[in-house]
Amino acid sequence: MNLKELKYYIQSANINFLYGSGTSRPYLSTLGSIEKWLTKLSEDRDHLSKDLCKVVESSIYKAYFDKVMAPNEYLPMHNPDCKTTIDNYKRLLTIWNSLLNKRHSRILNKQINLFTTNIDLLVENAAQGMGIELNDGFKGSVQPVFDESNFMKSVSQTSLHYQHISEIPCFNLLKVHGSLNWSNNENRIESDSLKIYRIKEHLKTIPDNHFVSVDYVDPTDSKVKEKSYDKIVEDARVLGITDTSIYDPFLDEYRKLIIVNPTKRKFAETVLDYHFYELMRIYSNALEKENSILFVAGFSFADEHIANLTKRAADRNPTLKIIIFAFDDREENSFREKLSITETCINSNITILTPTKLKETNASDNDCKDLLTKVEHFDMATINDIFEYIDNNIHSSYE
């Protein structure tokens, strides 16, 4: 992908992002094998005792909660990993706020759709106090209520003296797998900032020795590694817990989370749910809109439902451009496999951008040599470097 070509796309397209757990690193862990474990457990329920299943399920959910959910309750900005992650999100919002203001076209709206499978609250925290318009789908002051129709609105500003009205940049945050602060109240999704706290309080009532660890330290290299599913089940069986009612308050509170749990059957269980269906419909419609671009970052396309929707949109819409930032060169084949791409796709509109490809296609451009020297992996910092370079090379229509 030539950066001058990318600059052209940015100035003339409807902008969409699809990002996953990789963008919330290094502060939060990725899912690892949690999806595989939970899927296998759902398949084994007829073969394992009810008590054993509950111990295994509780242990896996606790690991998921500890790694991905609990760190959202309070963001320790003195923690270098937390500060780096939040700063990356802040920088992304700042750069794209500038890009939207600079675009020459007055026909295009000034909205960016941020589609994510992440359930964390890092983008919301990053936007806090920045003066950025972040639309998370909620409306209301006392008890905000979520409604997908809120994503159809634009934000304008009126000048004090001449009543001139102009649209201002707005980021639509569409969390297609739900969120940690979503709460169900009579079939309405409301904002609830105490959900993490309540789950933690229930966990405190269960002794640590009632959970099995899903990790172990490898004595050969002293690295922390994941156990196999069979090993987790074996360790849970060794615990010999017969009264598993102690887990019930934790599991009951956990199941109140309005999130799509990481299992292979997640959409078989939730696709008919109104809100998840609507969010995926909005995603599909955004990709079918003429002259749209989708940037993919920190997302592996392991989610088959989203992979299929994305590939279908690419095949149906020749004006759609999809640019996938592969963390390293080795990931290219994985993306090709998950999106069923051999040499190319029907409309040749999916680009899997690797660090090496970026360097090769821009090697003759002396203007971006400094940028290319920074590119080793496509982490959030490097992706921001690329967009910042483009922002610096687009002049505002008012200049």
Describe this structure in words.
With 399 residues, the protein is α/β, with parallel strands linked by helices. It has 2 domains: 3-27 and 80-180 and 265-392, TPP-binding domain (Rossmann fold, 3-Layer(aba) Sandwich); 35-73 and 193-254, no CATH class. Helices cover 41% and strands 16% of the residues. It contains 15 helices and 15 strands. The strands form 5 sheets. Strands 3-8-2-1-13-14-15 form a 7-stranded parallel sheet, sandwiched between helices. It has a two-stranded antiparallel ribbon with strand order 4-5. Strands 6-7 form a two-stranded antiparallel ribbon. The longest helix is centred in the first third of the chain and has 23 residues, at 80-102. The two termini are 28 Å apart. The mean pLDDT is 89.
